[in-house]
Design goal:
By secondary structure, the protein is an alpha+beta fold. Helix content is about 50%, strand content about 15%. Helix 14 (about 390-405) packs across helix 20, helix 15 (about 410-420) packs across helix 20 (about 495-510) and helix 20 (about 495-510) crosses helix 21 (about 520-530). Mean pLDDT is about 80; it is low at about 1-20.
Length: about 550
Amino acid sequence: MRSRSDSEVATRDTAGSPAISSCSPEHAALLDSILSATPDHMYLHDIGGRYLYASPAALEALGFELGDVVGKTSSELGFLGDDEAEYDAKRRQAMQTGLSEHGTTAVYGTTGMRDYDYTVVAVRDVDGVLAGAATTVRDVTDHIRSEGVLRDSQGTLERRVRQRTAELERTNDELVRTERALAALSISNRTLVRATDEGQLIRDVCDAIVSVGGYRMAWVGMKAPDGSSRVVPVASSGHEDGYLGEILVTWDDSPTGNGPGGRALRESHPVVLRDTMTDATFKSREAAVSRGYRSLAAFPLVDRDSEPFGLLVVYSDVVNAFDAKEVGLLEELSADLAFGIGSLRAREHHHRIEEDLVSSNAQLEQMVYEVAEAMGKIVEARDPYTKGHEMRVAQLGEMIAQEMGCSPDEIAAVSMASLLHDIGKLRIPTEILTKPGRLSVSESALIKEHAQAGYEILVDVSFPWPVAEIILQHHERMDGSGYPSGVRGDAILPAARIVALSDVVEAMASFRPYRPAVGIQAAIAEIKDHPELYDADVVTACLRLYEDGRLDFLTTPERR
């Protein structure tokens, strides 16, 4: 309970009529001085029943500070127990008739259970206008005991029993609410672990708060995405009945932003409203009361940078439903919910980044292939008799690699190297590339330099595969008879072995200026008859493709 200074006690009754002016520090000191000499207790109320003053003896007996009492009603303070209704009735009767009213009550204070007689009288201001009531209370416990009445009075005993029973019931209610809040927290945490969708997570947590926590209604809202100060509801559970469509919650410093939700979001801490009927700051009073919302607690949803981004509001159908333990548990639940939402949003953000990265990589890979095709066409432009050679070698190489069960990455390496395997011919004079008839020894030696030249052109390009090395080796042979280095066996890259065989088969099936096309059958015979030159697994895969009739693209009429 928040303490307030004496200068803060100005108040108005629920009907809005003027209340007794707040006691100034001088008046309060004077009253204290006058009343310190008597053991009787003195209280002042405004018309609505709120305490404006309590004497030192009264505060000492109850164990309160003045700031704990001022501005509160008997219901909120709770020390009258079952006698509260009778006392309030006598107070109202005294104000209506102008006559004093008398009664008795039992109060459990700092010295245990005590019995009191009280007298209530109306109080008017200097103009004679009704301003409230004053109550004088006398402790008669010792008097009753001395006369033997306390032990024999069944009525007094019953009042004491009722008072103690009421206290136990309140304690039990608090324990029940705490247990329900703890159960809701536990279920919500299990929900967080399984959550994969933000909207479903929020709905499940609201459901747990209502169904397990026993609350009237719960909803979650987010700051409006348009940059305004509105709070936009995104999920609710319980007895909502159109409530969220009637209210407006903002987090600015305006009437709609000074309710519990707006303050919780703006100030980044929980805000509890203990009675929806009496709190003057609550602008949605009528809509809330008509749906049975008697108290509520609002909790900000805060991100990892301590910035509030949303709001959780929980409603109860009883007054003063949210004690400190209950608020603490619900605050922990809201923090867990905020963490879960943040984690899901971060996961979604990373997923989008990954998708963008995959898309970018696919576009980049496509660009690389298109550049490789373009470079291959540049080579073909210098040697028109080999038009389409690179593309067909790449197609055959990919098919062989797939038949061999190579990985997608290995297939991509074969394809790219096939498209660029003759790029070194850019360094060979055109007249040699297109020369009809046999080449001289020196011309043949110059042609053989294209593998090394291709390597040198591409060695500094950051391909994801060893394209330059594959091109360097695509004329090597398994027995070491190839060029430019004469390497053999396992020293030749697997992809280079596939490109080498694909190059031979496609070249033999195609026309060249120095010879006619020998045809696909002759090409197949060549690789079968010289097992020492080619990788056996590559040959086997190529033969299966041929036997299955899948090499038709190499058997056009002019190549048969």
